[in-house]
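pinned: reference chain
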Amino acid sequence: MDFYLNQYQEVASRIAQNEAEGIPTLLFGVTFALLAMAETLPTQQWHNTIIMETGGMKGRGPEITRDELHSRLKQTFLGAEVHSEYGMTELLSQAYAKDGHRFVCPPWMQIFIQDPADPKQWLPNGKTGRLCVVDLANIDSCSFIATDDLAKRMDDGSFEVMGRIDFSDLRGCNQLVIE
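pinned: its structure tokens
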């Protein structure tokens, strides 16, 4: 496992080496860094690589839809699969979306949708509201978080994140990186 900060060519070289040797690669990255990498590098052929975007522009550029993000990444990194991860520093568990849209939680993590206008009101499946997470892996810590993300829960328990509630504070551990 390696960690890179703004070393896009080094990342691409490492993945190219893995591709040549038939070694599968999983590349985790925040949205703004993956976009910068895609804009910096020429087109790459990555057929044995999964890119896991972890979301968020955190004020480092214009917000784009997840579809647009995945499209841009797939245009530069030809053949790579692009998946999405939903999690936060305060939670021990994450949800993943192989299709980039519907996140699936582990059994100990549950999603509820709250009416943003009435915090005492839970919304039914299919309705958009504030995403609330119960993570039972958070033993001896906070196991419930009301986020500022807008989402809707599906009947199968998966959920889609629609964006942020307007005028929400920027949050995320990736804001701690000093360049």
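why pinned: The two ends are 21 Å apart (CA to CA). The longest strand covers residues 144-153.
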